[in-house]
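Appendix B, record 7
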Amino acid sequence: MGYKANITSNLLNQIIRIVLGALTSILVARTLGPSGQGYVAYALLIFTLLGNYGHMGLNSAVMYFLKRGGTDPERLMGNNFTALLLTWLLISAVLLALRSFGVVLGDYNYLYILGGLLLVLATFIYYNHHAWFTADERIIPANIYNMAVFIPKSLIIILLCVCGLQSPAAFFAISVAALLSNALILFFKLGQPFRLLIDLPLLKAEYSYGLVIWLSSVFTYLNLRLDQIMIRSMLGVSDLGVYTIAVNLAELMFLIPFSVNSALLGRLYNTSDPQVSRRVLAQTLKFSFYICAALALLGIPLSLLIPVFYGAAYAEATPATMILLGGMVFAALASISPQHFFSLGRPRIHLLLSGLTLLLNTLLNLLWIPLWGISGAALASSISYLAFGLGYLAVFIRREGFTLAELLALNRQDLKELWKRKTS
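Structure tokens (predicted):
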């Protein structure tokens, strides 16, 4: 499937998610209130973190070894599925032991814990299989399967809110069930045969490559979520509930990189001409940057409407959202850029930049959350996002041979190609 068609499919997918997500977010926030919102948001934050990064880099290596490693697909799938299952069992045992001693998640009952562990397993399976769809540029079918779950999930949440039946536990259960459904659909639709096995040389090679991407992904994730963890610790669950609204709204900016990333990475893995890859990357970056800048300019004044839609209890989310939106333009830029290095087997650049950005973010949050509350957290994050994006621009110019004009200046050729794609 073509690059433009895949991006278009991703874009439509994200638009539907934004529209329905905004509606459900407003209803859930009003129904649960800041404390309930913060309570369920923290549980989802922890288990999503384990699901996204508990694989220790194995899911990050799938595409490279499938497309560039010359690995037999059946052996790759069997080896990875077995390793992920064993990893999940280990995580489950450790977390249950820690919970039994009250070390972690002591204010959540065991139904939350068991549901969260199911969420972790579903996340492992979902992203492993989604990597196969991306590597084969089967973006459109994957999006259709996702929508087949997301739309009913959103309608159920809306119905529960309208009927007054929504609760933190119900919202958490729906989130778990939806991701589990996504994982099972991709599992059966991929149809890749495999058998359970452990291939130690292959595992060693995958972890050697994937661990770098995994660690940089952890840094990037913490860049986006560290402020929430620190707010809960320093300010409390109600402030976290308010701040999550600001974060959710500001991260609507990721409409663009989420629409681009899988299509871009699939295209780069399936393009052998380096000049074509450079042109695709440069044009994708510059178009994404200007679209994100326009969205930020639109979103900043619209943030004044937060108390109208979410209620007066969330009024403090307004300045935090405005601050975050400016930085999100550069966070989106930094989200797209790593695909270039992943496709070339050079993920350490992303590791370095994400690590330095996380260090900056941590220091600024420690200084500014006690001084200015959630607005201080927003400012710290926004500045770190700016540094992240500018760092990538510097690397592209100094190490990859791009010029600033190539990366950011629109020219006649860019517009001509955009028009050709639009009309083809």
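Remarks on this record: The chain has one domain: 3-423. The radius of gyration is 21 Å.
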